[in-house]
Every structure is written in structure tokens, then in C-alpha cells.
């Protein structure tokens, strides 16, 4: 595979699937890509905003409350570890992943810096997209005002930036997009009759745009039907205290519990910065002594 060719891009995850079901998520202007795509749900932009009742699952408001300003921590990966990471390294070279993260100037120090210090740097290319260029962070400024009503525009412009400026095709805020999907976006994404350029609900609009480009939504569960993308925090997926809409709208009825979550999960939502460091520790450093982890083949047959 040609270096500089990116196969997949991460942007908003579950959004794409749910977008087809006519539901709108709101991401605050402070939203960061992958781990922060879902704010509380409201029933469609056009209709009245109905706040969905919730019990104990985390929301963006909760995150803001518990969020302390913390200093970034740099983890040293190498010391005393004897992990066999040859396959991970091969995959890193063979399947190149570009990740772009939507942020804004107010969130650079509060959130983006922690994304960069944890999961952000574990892909081939990481780009922070904001309304203002900041050469020292760095962020790429795209010409769209901040605010949730412009999220669609921000996503569309960000895709255009990564597909044109970076000379490879790439994707939006919390989904994984194939190279072919991005090629199609690069070719037709500025056509307003296929892809709304701003306004509406960002993930729903992006979903419609992809549909108009003939891009299909894939089944992201593993071959045991276990979930890889998670639109709540980890504890909620383990305990299952979901709001009712989730059971109605999730393609698999809103399963919960350890057995419903893939060992190769990809994303969880509502991860505050301090927990990003916890997860970094548990994922890349913590090891129950005496267990040597083997690879599992959990991929589904693709049809
Ligand atoms: C760029 O970001 C840094 C934080 O990383 C901040 O301290 C600085 O003020 C920003 N510069 C501009 C011009 O916004
Ligand atoms: C935009 O898309 C529509 C619908 O597919 C098509 O008819 C039209 O020719 C396209 N416009 C351009 C400029 O490509
Ligand atoms: C996704 O794949 C799993 C496992 O093969 C299957 O059980 C499930 O029904 C599929 N879901 C959809 C929406 O097709």
C-alpha cells in the first residue's frame, strides 16, 4: 500500500447509524470528535426540542461539571514492557488511519491537549480542526463560525480540508469512513443538492450526504454480535441503565453487559480528560500478572 494513502478516517461514530433513524444529536461547540459526539438527544431539529429523561448515564453537562482543569501527562510507553506488538506495528504501516478531531479555541487547553496526549496520537495522522488556526498547538482553522448550528458546515469544510489540502481523503467527527467513501466525498461533497453545506443536524446531514453518495452503513459489531462503538460512557454500557429511546433506536435493541461489548471495542462516549489518562493506563500499561494476551479473530465476514 502506498504510503500517504489513508484507508480509514475517524470522525462521529454512532451518529451515522442513528442519523438514518431521524434522530438528532447535539454536540456542543465544545465537542471533540470521536469520544464526544453525542450530546443529549432531542427529537429532530425541526420539531420541538424534547429533553430526553435520563437517569444516571453521563451527559455533556455532567462532563462540564466534573471537569477540572488538569495538566497533560506524557506516558512513557516503552519502559519494562515486554509486549509483542509486531502485529500492531505492521497494521500501523499497512492500514493508515487519519483522525481529525473537531475542537474550538476555548477547548484546546481543556480538552484537545488531553486527546493529543492519549488516544489521539495512536493513529498515523492527527489533525485538530477549529475555527481559528493556531500554529503552536497546532490547529487548522476553517472558515466557519463556532456554534452547534454550524457543526454541519464545520464537518463539511473539515472533510474538504483533509481531502484536498492533505491530498488524501479523510473524514468527519466520530465515524469511521472508508477511503472510497472519502473519495466520493472529495468528488461530490461540495454539491449542495447531495450534501447540505451547513445547518441542520451535523450527523444526520452527514449521514444523508453519505447515503446520496451511495455509501452504505456497515455493521460494526464483531462476529459474536458484540458492540464496538458506544454512544454512552463505559459504565452505562456495562450496567444498561439506558434511556428508553436507545432501546427503541439501537439496531440491536440496546444490549448491555460485559458480554455485549467487543474485546476490540473502538470508542466510548463521554470520557472526561482525567479518564482518558486512566484508560491510557489500563489499556497500555496495566497488566494482570501472568496473563499473556493472544489475538482474537473477531472480524465479521463482509458481504
Ligand atoms: C494557541 O494555543 C495555545 C494553547 O496550546 C494558546 O496558549 C495560545 O494562546 C493560542 N494562540 C492563539 C493565537 O490563539
Ligand atoms: C449535483 O448533484 C445533482 C444530483 O445528483 C446533479 O444532478 C448535478 O449535476 C450535480 N451538480 C454538479 C455541479 O455536479
Ligand atoms: C450485525 O452482525 C451481527 C453478527 O453477525 C448480527 O447478529 C446482527 O444482526 C447484525 N446487525 C445488523 C443490523 O445487521
Task: Walk me through the topology.
Layout: E1 8-10, H1 15-19, E2 24-25, E3 41-42, H2 60-66, H3 86-94, E4 97-102, H4 108-117, E5 125-130, E6 140-141, H5 151-165, E7 176-178, H6 179-188, H7 202-212, E8 229-230, H8 234-239, H9 244-249, E9 267-268, H10 273-284
Parallel strand pairs: 1-4, 4-5, 5-6, 8-9
Antiparallel strand pairs: 1-7, 2-3
The protein binds 2-acetamido-2-deoxy-beta-D-glucopyranose (3 copies).
One 2-acetamido-2-deoxy-beta-D-glucopyranose is lined by residues 191, 193-194.
How would you characterize this protein structure?
The radius of gyration is 19 Å and the shape is globular. Mean pLDDT is 77; it is low at 1-54 and 166-173. The protein has helices spanning 15-19, 60-66, 86-94, 108-117, 151-165, 179-188, 202-212, 234-239, 244-249, 273-284; strands at 8-10, 24-25, 41-42, 97-102, 125-130, 140-141, 176-178, 229-230, 267-268. The longest helix is centred in the middle third of the chain and has 15 residues, at 151-165. Helices cover 30% and strands 9% of the residues. The chain has 303 residues and is an alpha/beta fold. One 2-acetamido-2-deoxy-beta-D-glucopyranose is lined by residues 191, 193-194. One 2-acetamido-2-deoxy-beta-D-glucopyranose (NAG) binds next to α4.
